[in-house]
Amino acid sequence: MANLKLRNLYKMYEQGNGKNKKKSIQQNNEYAVNNLNLEIEDGTFLGILGPSGCGKSTTLRMIAGLEEITKGEIAIGDTVINNTHPKERKIGLAFEDYALYPPLSVYNNIAFCLKANKVDKKEIDQRVRKIAKIMKVDDLLDEKVEGLSGGQKQRVNIARALVRNPKILLLDEPLSHLDGKMRQILRGEIKRLHKEMKCTTILVTHDQMEALSLADHIAIMKLGVLQQYGTPDEIYNDPVNVFVADFIGEPPMNLLPVVVKKLNGGFCFVLQDGTKIKAPAKFNSVLDEGQQYTMGIRPTSITIADEIDFDAEFTVDVFENLGDERIVSIRILEDFLTIVIEDMLVFQKGNKIYVKMKEDLLYLFDRETGERIRE
């Protein structure tokens, strides 16, 4: 087993036909994957996360050998596999749409690739039954796959990928077709599977909950470019730019335009409606009168305070009681500030509230570039 390395990886899809093809590429100089560099240690569970069209599935397909690489290298250990045939890469791939063979039984679907490679029948039987038990489909081996539920089909799909004893398991949106309850169940099964088999696993998803709950490390992509790579805690608590801050978290991070003003020997942030919020002292070295930033703070990093010790006063616009938590929405001209509280409090539209903001979890971003301003 060895590390998986993506070095200066590019992918550009050709457009047009014949003589127009080259011209089309030159005019549309946009890469589906743009200079991607990642080193994934053996046994890691990596989540590649991003919106549709960000290049995550393209990256997965290049690793699997299903997409030609425009530029760059993919290596397992010291061996470059750019020109290695997909079936020789020792990679298992499970698609979101299952891609099972309806006429065949569960057993024969799982065994299909082994039979195609003329593996000994006794070994096939041992491997199929072993992986079927791990994926909890051992009682379905004689069933036809067309009669299975979505969750059962995905278990068979993953079992078929694992029966090859792959060095790397690739999962392309494996839970996207399942309902909420089944997604939760199968998330737990995939996590258990990874701990049991210790196989390097790469999950492609647009669902942040899947990535945060399953992955050891997360790579966030936007328009083909890697935005941030780190642990779930690093991605959530230390976002490098506005895109990452806004993409991770439910409800998403509050992102509000502010102007810096001097206040009592320090500084404050002035919102668009004139509300003043005391600026944390940690920013004093980078702030100056009149600067414009985007202020970021997560809804869970704001608490209800009393009239004596507070950072800002607001008027409630919308109050939602969700049982285990309550959501308070504050309108600030065209923007909203969202607060999530667990206290057994009830508010009405128009109520005045006082809030405290956790200074260590308040962020500033450049208004033009979106990059994080480091204190």
TrEMBL record:
Q: Molecular function terms in GO for this entry? A: ATP binding
Which InterPro entries does UniProt cross-reference here?
A: AAA+_ATPase, ABC_transporter-like_ATP-bd, ABC_transporter-like_CS, ABC_transpr_MalK/UgpC-like, Mo/tungstate-bd_C_term_dom, NA-bd_OB-fold, OB_MalK-like, P-loop_NTPase
Record's keyword terms, sorted = ATP-binding, Nucleotide-binding, Transport
Q: Which residues form a coiled coil?
A: none
Q: Where is the ABC transporter domain?
A: 4-248
Matches recorded under SMART domains:
AAA (SM00382)
Q: Does the keyword ATP-binding apply?
A: yes
Would the keyword NAD turn up in this protein's UniProt record?
Answer: no
The protein depicted here goes by the name: Sn-glycerol-3-phosphate ABC transporter ATP-binding protein UgpC
Q: What organism, scientifically named, is this protein from?
A: Blautia hominis
